[in-house]
Amino acid sequence: MTIGALPQDVRSAPPEHAAERESIVGFLDFQRDTVIWKSTGLSDADAARALLPSPTTVSGLIQHLTDVERSWFRTDMEGEVGVPERRTPEDRDGAFRITADTSLDDLIADYRAACDESRAVVARHQLDDRCALHEHRYTLRWIMLHMIEETARHAGHIDILRELLDGAIGE
């Protein structure tokens, strides 16, 4: 294993004193930034390298998070039809599948785009607005809090994979 280094940490910290909406947005954006920070600098081959029996890789996690952003915000919250998703009933791990020509830079760019799309959805709604799907049982607040949990969990996975891949560690 070669010892790698994480790039300079340029994540924006969540606000220490803010209203609920700004706090939730700040923590979600911090976790999104963490996913990108922990992944940046890996080669395409390392980002796609399977270190576990499951199809979990750094690239696969970013691709999965991209799909989750689009699914929860565009599909579930707003009811948009035809939003691309790699997971299917036939292939539950489809979002994690990476091909030999998958570019980490392209995945990160697509993830950033999905996060921007999600931010646009959030800007159109109040925290108490209910989603279009799931019998309207989830509020935007719930979706955003769920996305903090989902993104933080996978940022932790990426953190461990990164250390195993090149030894790079960081907060």
Keywords:
171 residues, mainly alpha, Four Helix Bundle (Hemerythrin (Met), subunit A), 5 helices
Describe the protein.
The chain is mainly α and 171 residues long. The chain has a single domain (43-166), classed as Four Helix Bundle (Hemerythrin (Met), subunit A) (Up-down Bundle), CATH 1.20.120.450. Helices cover 53% and strands 0% of the residues. The protein has helices at residues 20-39, 44-47, 58-77, 104-123, 140-166. Helix 1 (20-39) packs parallel to helix 5 (140-166) and helix 3 (58-77) runs antiparallel to helix 5 (140-166). It is globular, with a radius of gyration of 16 Å. The relative contact order is 0.21.
Short description:
This protein has 171 residues and is mostly helical. Helix content is 53%, strand content 0%.
Q: Give the radius of gyration.
A: 16 Å
Intertermini distance = 20 Å
What is the succession of H and E elements? HHHHH
Shape annotation: globular
Largest sheet geometry: none
CATH third-level topology: Four Helix Bundle (Hemerythrin (Met), subunit A)
- Structural category is mainly alpha
Portion in helices: 40-55%
On the 0 to 100 scale, the average pLDDT is 94
Strand content: under 5%
CATH superfamily: dinb family like domain
